[in-house]
DNA sequence: CGGAAGATTTCT
DNA sequence: GAAATCTTCCGA
Protein backbone atom coordinates (compact mmCIF):
# COMPACT_ATOMS: atom_id res chain seq x y z
CA UNK A 1 0.00 0.00 0.00
CA UNK A 2 1.26 3.45 -0.90
CA UNK A 3 2.41 5.64 1.96
CA UNK A 4 0.24 8.65 2.62
CA UNK A 5 1.21 12.23 3.26
CA UNK A 6 0.89 11.87 7.05
CA UNK A 7 3.73 9.37 7.09
CA UNK A 8 6.19 12.07 6.05
CA UNK A 9 5.10 14.79 8.42
CA UNK A 10 6.37 13.40 11.72
CA UNK A 11 9.71 13.24 13.48
CA UNK A 12 12.57 12.80 11.00
CA UNK A 13 14.46 10.23 13.05
CA UNK A 14 11.32 8.15 13.53
CA UNK A 15 10.57 8.29 9.83
CA UNK A 16 14.13 7.26 8.94
CA UNK A 17 13.75 4.17 11.08
CA UNK A 18 10.37 3.33 9.60
CA UNK A 19 11.70 3.77 6.07
CA UNK A 20 13.91 0.70 6.42
CA UNK A 21 12.00 -2.14 4.77
CA UNK A 22 9.79 0.14 2.67
CA UNK A 23 9.60 -0.25 -1.09
CA UNK A 24 10.72 2.55 -3.39
CA UNK A 25 8.85 2.44 -6.70
CA UNK A 26 9.67 4.36 -9.86
CA UNK A 27 7.57 4.07 -13.01
CA UNK A 28 9.19 5.14 -16.27
CA UNK A 29 8.55 4.63 -20.00
CA UNK A 30 11.25 1.96 -19.91
CA UNK A 31 9.53 0.00 -17.17
CA UNK A 32 9.05 -0.21 -13.43
CA UNK A 33 11.86 -0.55 -10.94
CA UNK A 34 11.36 -1.37 -7.26
CA UNK A 35 13.82 -1.59 -4.43
CA UNK A 36 13.57 -2.09 -0.69
CA UNK A 37 15.22 0.59 1.43
CA UNK A 38 17.95 -0.93 3.57
CA UNK A 39 19.98 2.12 4.55
CA UNK A 40 18.97 5.70 5.37
CA UNK A 41 20.38 8.74 7.16
CA UNK A 42 18.63 11.70 8.76
CA UNK A 43 19.61 15.29 8.06
CA UNK A 44 18.02 17.81 10.35
CA UNK A 45 18.96 21.16 8.90
CA UNK A 46 18.82 23.67 11.73
CA UNK A 47 21.08 21.64 14.05
CA UNK A 48 23.08 19.58 11.61
CA UNK A 49 26.39 20.85 10.31
CA UNK A 50 26.47 18.10 7.71
CA UNK A 51 23.18 19.19 6.15
CA UNK A 52 22.89 21.42 3.13
CA UNK A 53 20.23 23.34 5.01
CA UNK A 54 22.34 23.83 8.15
CA UNK A 55 21.50 27.01 9.99
CA UNK A 56 18.36 27.29 7.85
CA UNK A 57 20.26 28.14 4.70
CA UNK A 58 17.82 28.63 1.88
CA UNK A 59 18.61 28.57 -1.81
CA UNK A 60 17.38 27.29 -5.14
CA UNK A 61 18.81 23.91 -4.30
CA UNK A 62 17.51 23.48 -0.77
CA UNK A 63 14.15 25.18 -1.07
CA UNK A 64 12.17 21.97 -1.48
CA UNK A 65 13.31 20.94 2.00
CA UNK A 66 11.24 23.78 3.39
CA UNK A 67 8.05 22.29 2.04
CA UNK A 68 6.00 19.78 4.00
CA UNK A 69 7.18 16.16 3.93
CA UNK A 70 6.64 13.76 1.07
CA UNK A 71 8.65 15.39 -1.71
CA UNK A 72 11.82 14.26 -3.46
CA UNK A 73 14.99 16.26 -2.82
CA UNK A 74 17.52 15.34 -5.47
CA UNK A 75 20.86 17.00 -6.01
CA UNK A 76 24.06 16.49 -7.93
CA UNK A 77 27.24 15.82 -6.00
CA UNK A 78 30.82 16.03 -7.29
CA UNK A 79 29.40 16.95 -10.65
CA UNK A 80 28.73 13.32 -11.46
CA UNK A 81 26.34 11.61 -9.11
CA UNK A 82 22.80 12.20 -7.90
CA UNK A 83 21.61 11.59 -4.38
CA UNK A 84 17.98 10.90 -3.54
CA UNK A 85 16.43 12.31 -0.37
CA UNK A 86 12.94 12.30 1.05
CA UNK A 87 11.76 15.58 2.56
CA UNK A 88 10.23 15.14 6.01
CA UNK A 89 8.57 17.14 8.75
CA UNK A 90 6.14 20.01 8.34
CA UNK A 91 6.34 23.16 6.23
CA UNK A 92 9.22 25.48 7.14
CA UNK A 93 11.41 22.76 8.67
CA UNK A 94 14.33 21.82 6.39
CA UNK A 95 14.69 18.17 7.32
CA UNK A 96 15.17 15.16 5.10
CA UNK A 97 16.28 11.55 4.87
CA UNK A 98 19.07 10.48 2.53
CA UNK A 99 18.45 7.07 0.97
CA UNK A 100 21.84 5.40 0.84
CA UNK A 101 21.06 1.86 -0.29
CA UNK A 102 18.32 -0.39 -1.67
CA UNK A 103 17.84 -4.09 -2.22
CA UNK A 104 16.71 -4.59 -5.86
CA UNK A 105 13.28 -6.26 -6.00
CA UNK A 106 11.76 -5.66 -9.41
CA UNK A 107 13.02 -4.48 -12.79
CA UNK A 108 16.48 -5.88 -12.10
CA UNK A 109 17.23 -6.36 -15.79
CA UNK A 110 16.48 -2.69 -16.38
CA UNK A 111 18.76 -1.74 -13.51
CA UNK A 112 21.56 -3.83 -14.97
CA UNK A 113 21.13 -2.09 -18.29
CA UNK A 114 21.23 1.36 -16.70
CA UNK A 115 24.20 0.54 -14.53
CA UNK A 116 25.97 -1.40 -17.28
CA UNK A 117 26.87 -4.26 -14.98
CA UNK A 118 25.53 -7.72 -14.20
CA UNK A 119 26.65 -7.67 -10.59
CA UNK A 120 23.44 -7.30 -8.58
CA UNK A 121 25.31 -6.25 -5.48
CA UNK A 122 26.65 -3.20 -7.30
CA UNK A 123 23.29 -2.01 -8.58
CA UNK A 124 22.01 -0.06 -5.60
CA UNK A 125 24.62 -0.26 -2.82
CA UNK A 126 25.32 3.47 -2.57
CA UNK A 127 23.52 6.81 -2.98
CA UNK A 128 24.78 7.57 -6.48
CA UNK A 129 24.41 3.99 -7.67
CA UNK A 130 20.82 3.56 -6.60
CA UNK A 131 19.80 6.75 -8.41
CA UNK A 132 21.40 5.45 -11.56
CA UNK A 133 19.72 2.05 -11.21
CA UNK A 134 16.30 3.52 -10.42
CA UNK A 135 16.51 6.09 -13.21
CA UNK A 136 16.31 8.96 -10.73
CA UNK A 137 17.69 12.24 -11.98
CA UNK A 138 17.29 15.93 -11.30
CA UNK A 139 14.20 16.08 -13.45
CA UNK A 140 12.47 14.51 -10.47
CA UNK A 141 13.55 17.29 -8.12
CA UNK A 142 10.56 18.32 -6.03
CA UNK A 143 8.51 15.36 -7.25
CA UNK A 144 5.48 14.62 -5.05
CA UNK A 145 5.92 11.17 -3.52
CA UNK A 146 2.16 10.94 -3.06
CA UNK A 147 1.84 10.82 -6.88
CA UNK A 148 1.90 7.85 -9.22
CA UNK A 149 5.34 8.09 -10.80
CA UNK A 150 7.71 7.92 -7.87
CA UNK A 151 6.44 6.76 -4.49
CA UNK A 152 6.93 4.48 -1.51
CA UNK A 153 4.82 1.57 -0.34
CA UNK A 154 4.74 -0.86 2.58
CA UNK A 155 6.77 -3.99 2.09
CA UNK A 156 8.27 -5.51 5.23
CA UNK A 157 7.97 -4.56 8.86
CA UNK A 158 9.81 -7.50 10.39
CA UNK A 159 13.35 -6.34 9.78
CA UNK A 160 15.83 -5.87 12.57
CA UNK A 161 17.16 -2.33 12.41
CA UNK A 162 20.61 -1.23 13.48
CA UNK A 163 21.60 2.31 14.38
CA UNK A 164 25.03 3.81 13.77
CA UNK A 165 26.90 6.99 13.10
CA UNK A 166 26.58 8.53 9.69
CA UNK A 167 29.03 7.83 6.91
CA UNK A 168 30.09 10.99 5.29
CA UNK A 169 30.56 13.43 8.06
CA UNK A 170 33.79 12.60 9.90
CA UNK A 171 34.87 16.21 9.67
CA UNK A 172 31.70 17.97 10.73
CA UNK A 173 32.67 18.21 14.39
CA UNK A 174 29.98 17.20 16.85
CA UNK A 175 27.59 16.27 14.07
CA UNK A 176 29.84 13.29 13.46
CA UNK A 177 28.61 11.60 16.63
CA UNK A 178 24.90 11.77 15.92
CA UNK A 179 23.54 8.20 15.60
CA UNK A 180 21.35 9.10 12.66
CA UNK A 181 22.09 6.24 10.31
CA UNK A 182 19.70 3.31 10.10
CA UNK A 183 20.37 0.01 8.37
CA UNK A 184 18.68 -3.36 7.95
CA UNK A 185 20.69 -5.89 9.94
CA UNK A 186 22.77 -8.36 7.91
CA UNK A 187 21.52 -7.04 4.59
CA UNK A 188 24.00 -7.56 1.78
CA UNK A 189 23.07 -4.40 -0.06
CA UNK A 190 24.02 -1.71 2.42
CA UNK A 191 26.86 0.49 1.21
CA UNK A 192 30.26 -0.89 2.08
CA UNK A 193 31.75 2.53 2.50
CA UNK A 194 31.65 2.12 6.27
CA UNK A 195 34.66 -0.17 6.06
CA UNK A 196 36.67 2.55 4.40
CA UNK A 197 36.35 5.21 7.07
CA UNK A 198 39.77 6.75 7.56
CA UNK A 199 41.29 6.55 11.01
C1' DC B 1 31.55 37.41 -11.36
C1' DG B 2 35.04 34.14 -9.68
C1' DG B 3 36.81 30.77 -6.59
C1' DA B 4 36.22 26.95 -3.47
C1' DA B 5 34.05 22.96 -1.67
C1' DG B 6 31.23 18.93 -1.85
C1' DA B 7 25.83 13.75 1.84
C1' DT B 8 30.60 9.77 -4.27
C1' DT B 9 32.27 6.12 -7.28
C1' DT B 10 35.66 3.59 -9.53
C1' DC B 11 39.96 1.92 -10.61
C1' DT B 12 45.02 1.21 -9.63
C1' DG C 1 44.84 6.52 -2.37
C1' DA C 2 43.60 9.48 -6.11
C1' DA C 3 41.24 11.14 -9.93
C1' DA C 4 37.08 12.37 -12.38
C1' DT C 5 34.28 16.59 -12.99
C1' DC C 6 30.38 20.44 -12.42
C1' DT C 7 26.84 22.51 -9.66
C1' DT C 8 25.97 25.32 -5.88
C1' DC C 9 27.10 28.79 -2.62
C1' DC C 10 29.21 32.85 -0.85
C1' DG C 11 32.02 36.80 -0.81
C1' DA C 12 33.65 40.88 -3.45
Would you kindly provide a brief summary of this structure?
With 199 residues, this protein is an alpha+beta fold.
Account of the 3D structure:
- By secondary structure, the protein is α+β, with helices and mostly antiparallel strands.
- It has one domain (5-196): 3-methyladenine DNA Glycosylase, Chain A.
- Helices cover 12% and strands 29% of the residues.
- It contains three helices and eight strands, in the order αβββββααβββ.
- The protein has helices at 12-19, 108-115, 127-134, and strands at 23-28, 31-44, 72-77, 81-87, 95-106, 150-153, 161-164, 181-184.
- Strands 1, 2, 3, 4, 5, 6, 7 and 8 form an eight-stranded antiparallel beta sheet that branches.
- It is globular.
- The chain starts with 11 loop residues before the first helix and ends in a 15-residue tail after the last strand.
- Mean pLDDT is 91; it is low at 193-199.
- The structure holds a DNA duplex (12 and 12 nucleotides).
Run of helices and strands: HEEEEEHHEEE
> Major sheet, described briefly?
8 strands, antiparallel
Mean pLDDT: 91
Radius of gyration, Cα only, in angstroms?
Answer: 16 Å
Beta fraction: 25-35%
Instruction: Assign the CATH superfamily.
Output: Methylpurine-DNA glycosylase (MPG)
Shape: globular
Number of domains: 1
CATH architecture: Roll
Low-confidence stretches: 193-199
Number of strands: 8
- Tally of helical segments: 3
Name the helicity range. 10-25%
Distance between the termini: 43 Å
Helix and strand content put the structural class at alpha+beta
Assign the CATH topology: 3-methyladenine DNA Glycosylase, Chain A
Q: Which class in CATH terms?
A: Alpha Beta
Amino acid sequence: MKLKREFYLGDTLEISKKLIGKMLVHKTPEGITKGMIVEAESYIGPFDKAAHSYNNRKSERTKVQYKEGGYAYIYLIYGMYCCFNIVTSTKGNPECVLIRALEPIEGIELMKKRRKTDDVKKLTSGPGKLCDAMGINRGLYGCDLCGDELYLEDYRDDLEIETSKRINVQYSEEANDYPWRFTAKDNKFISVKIKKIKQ
